[in-house]
Amino acid sequence: MTLLKEGGRLVVISFHSLEDRIVKRFMRDAAAPDHLLSTKLPLRAVDLPQPELRLVGKPVKASEKEVSANPRARSAVMRVAEKLARKAA
């Protein structure tokens, strides 16, 4: 994530469900890091981890036309996320 500049987009195409699960979890955790915390922790809003990514759209799968032209595209899933600007503390 350090190589990606603010506003830069991370685009990942996965071809297997196990790969897609890793990508989905990584992007979800970076977009909403507070879901990993217990609600019972006594944290102020400023102490909560800030999101690093913003998910852009929904996962994109190949159309039927693309799959008929290229059968290997059937299992491909593309996910896009944009790096957010860091807020000064």
TrEMBL record:
Family matches, as InterPro entries: RsmH (IPR002903), SAM-dependent_MTases_sf (IPR029063)
Gene: rsmH_2
Protein name: Ribosomal RNA small subunit methyltransferase H
Enzyme class: transferase
Lineage: Bacteria, Pseudomonadati, Pseudomonadota, Betaproteobacteria, Candidatus Accumulibacter
A Gene Ontology molecular function term of the record: rRNA (cytosine-N4-)-methyltransferase activity
Keyword match Nucleus: no
Spans through the membrane: none
Entries under PANTHER family matching the protein: 12S RRNA N4-METHYLCYTIDINE METHYLTRANSFERASE (PTHR11265:SF0), S-ADENOSYL-METHYLTRANSFERASE MRAW (PTHR11265)
